[in-house]
Every structure is written in C-alpha cells, then in structure tokens.
C-alpha cells in the first residue's frame, strides 16, 4: 500500500552465465529494452537509473557493484535501480507480463547465487537512490536478513519499520490495469529466442 511521503527503492543484481557478447545471453539483452518499456508503462512506476555511456535516463551516481562480483571473472553484472510508488506496484510489474516472461527464462542467462536477487527499501518521495547505496543495502540484506532498511517481498516493512502484509488483491488489480499497456511488448516477445 502507498505510504504518503515515501517511495519504494529497488535494486537487483546478478551474474550472467557468459559474457555480454555471448550468444548464451542474447535472449536477455534483446528483452532488456522491452522490460524497461514495460516498467515505464506500469502503474506506480516513478523512475529508474540509466547507465553511464548508454542512451536513456541518466545514471544515478557512479555505477558500482556489490562485493559478490569479486572473483566472478566479470567486471560488471546485470543490475537495475528503480523507484516505485509502493510494494504492490513493483510486485504487479515483476510477476506479470513482459518481466514475468523474462523471469521464467532467467535460468538460461543467469547463474544461481547465494545472495538475494534484489533488495527493497523506502526513500523520501522525491529522493533518488544511488548505486553505491543500493549495493550496500543488498549486502546488508545478505549479511543480516530482512529488516526495515533492507528487505524483500517475503518479509516486507513499512516506512516506519513495521512488518507489512502485501495487499495481494491490489497486486492483482494492478496486473489487470497494466495488461493493456503491455500488449504490443508481449507481441514483440513472440518467437524471440531465449
């Protein structure tokens, strides 16, 4: 549920099974613009960071990566940083439509990891999280488990630090509201190789 004066920040990070130019991860790379477009059309989307040197929104600070990158053989990993009106809006985007199709295929592109795939935290409405802050929150969630300053969908908190029950009926309503805006994007996915 929306909390007046607050927005939900989300950061995710993973590692691909091969280098970005490998055929093994081209399915991911071809879907990435569709996922960004779906997010921008989704109810409750506030904004997202871009990436230095790439077209699109400006980067929210210098992009850095969590310590989980060390020893991987990569100098970067797939990650995103975005802001949403509330938890239900983010869930509706994450688990339906274009993004849900990408999640179903993620095992083809991403390694299995022992760190959480994403971290959530509340920010003042109008503030913008930066990459460094986001990576520290993901590390905190991994090291200490969910808490008011770094949590996940399974154990969520409100801006005051209290445990919160996600409104599943509202998530369903938002999925239905988002569906018409994703029709053209879902068409583009048809026949796209994994």
Features of the shown structure:
194 residues, alpha+beta, four-stranded antiparallel β-sheet, 5 helices
Principal-axis shape equals globular
Distance between the termini: 35 Å
According to DSSP, the number of beta strands is: 6
Structural class comes to alpha+beta
Strand line-up of the largest beta sheet:
2-3-1-4
> Mean pLDDT score, rounded?
96
Order of helices and strands: EHEEHHEHEEH
The whole-angstrom Rg is 16 Å
**How many helical stretches?**
5
Helix content: 25-40%
Which regions have little confidence, pLDDT < 50, spanning 5+ residues? none
- Main beta sheet: strand number and arrangement? 4 strands, antiparallel
Beta-strand percentage range: 5-15%
What would a concise description of this structure say?
By secondary structure, the chain is α+β, with helices and mostly antiparallel strands.
Task: Summarize the SSE layout with pairings.
Elements: E1 6-13, H1 26-41, E2 45-48, E3 79-84, H2 87-94, H3 97-109, E4 118-124, H4 131-144, E5 156-157, E6 163-164, H5 168-189
Antiparallel strand pairs: 1-3, 1-4, 2-3, 5-6
């Amino acid at each position: 549920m929306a909390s007046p004066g607050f927005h939900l920040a989300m950061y995710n990070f993973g590692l691909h099974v091969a280098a970005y130019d490998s055929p093994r991860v081209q399915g991911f790379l071809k879907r990435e613009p569709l996922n960004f477009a779906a997010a921008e059309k989704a109810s409750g989307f506030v904004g997202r960071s871009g990436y230095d040197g790439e077209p699109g929104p400006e980067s929210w600070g210098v992009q850095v990566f969590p310590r989980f990158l060390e020893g991987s053989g990569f100098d970067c990993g797939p990650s995103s940083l975005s802001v949403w009106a509330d938890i239900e809006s983010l869930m509706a985007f994450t688990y339906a439509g274009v993004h849900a199709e990408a999640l179903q295929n993620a095992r083809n592109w991403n390694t299995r990891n022992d760190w959480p795939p994403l971290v959530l935290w509340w920010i003042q409405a109008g503030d913008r999280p930066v990459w460094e802050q986001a990576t520290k929150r993901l590390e905190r969630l991994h090291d200490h488990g969910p808490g008011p300053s770094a949590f996940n969908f399974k154990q969520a908190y409100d801006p005051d630090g209290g445990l919160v029950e996600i409104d599943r009926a509202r998530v369903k309503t938002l999925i239905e509201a988002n569906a018409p805006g994703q029709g053209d994007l879902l068409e583009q996915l048809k026949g796209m190789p994994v």
